[in-house]
Amino acid sequence: MVPTGVVGNLPVTLRLSSSNAAIGRMPTAFVAVPLLDAAVRVTVGDEGARRAELAPGELFTVYIHAENVRDFYGAALELHFDPEVLQVLGGRLGVDRGRAFVLADPVTGRQVPLQWLTPVVDNQRGVVRIAGSRGAAGSALQLTDTLAAVRFRAVAPGTTSLRLVTVGDHPFLAPDAQAAFIARDDGTAVDVVTESATIVVRGDAP
Asked: 107 in a domain, yes or no?
């Protein structure tokens, strides 16, 4: 079966063939494909963990993922953390665009970067702001991919959440749209659930 993004009761037809016997036509069956919750999640490291324990001085990467988001056009959000516990490496250079904002040519494999606004990093307040859109490529029917990757250093013992916060001046939402992380190409909001991550920095050195 090939995923198409279509949900509901979908017909399925099996085709059987044999060189030794004639096989009659199989009846059409139906399979229920549920609508999965659209989500934006924060994970730590390549394993996709929601919680990590580190020592002061350790480096790690946090990923912001969009999952099962329909009609995805643009995103804008802030990632909040405790600056007494963590710092973003290299300021805005420590923030990379996610694959959601890269268009891969299916024939040549060439990757074309889509719209990506310069990230804003405030290591004093503990805020990273990212924003990007698919631009002329138009909305994705259904998107599951990374929105951004942020490189951090653990600087002092403590516990901090990495949580997502909406922005008041979302560049891809219409002025009268509800607050949201994700926008359609017509400026309306896409509802998603969010999940934060937790970092615990121990008192021992690495």
From this structure: yes
Beta-ladder partners of 122: 127
Domain that holds residue 58: 36-201
**Which amino acid type is present at position 43?**
T
- Cα separation, 165 vs 130, whole angstroms: 11
Do 192 and 41 form a contact (C-beta atoms < 8 A)?
no
Residue 18 belongs to some domain of the structure: no
Is residue 5, in this structure, part of any structural domain at all? no
- Is the CB of residue 154 less than 8 Å from the CB of residue 95? no
Determine, yes or no, domain membership for 9. no
CA angle 128, 123, 196 (to 5 degrees): 45
Summarize the chain as % helix, strand, coil (round to 5): 5, 50, 45
Measured over the CA atoms of residue 43, residue 49, residue 51 and residue 54, the dihedral's sign is negative
Instruction: Note the pLDDT tens digit of each residue in 139-154.
Output: 999 999 999 999 999 9
Tokens representing 25? 């036509």
Mean of all residue pLDDT scores within the chain: 88
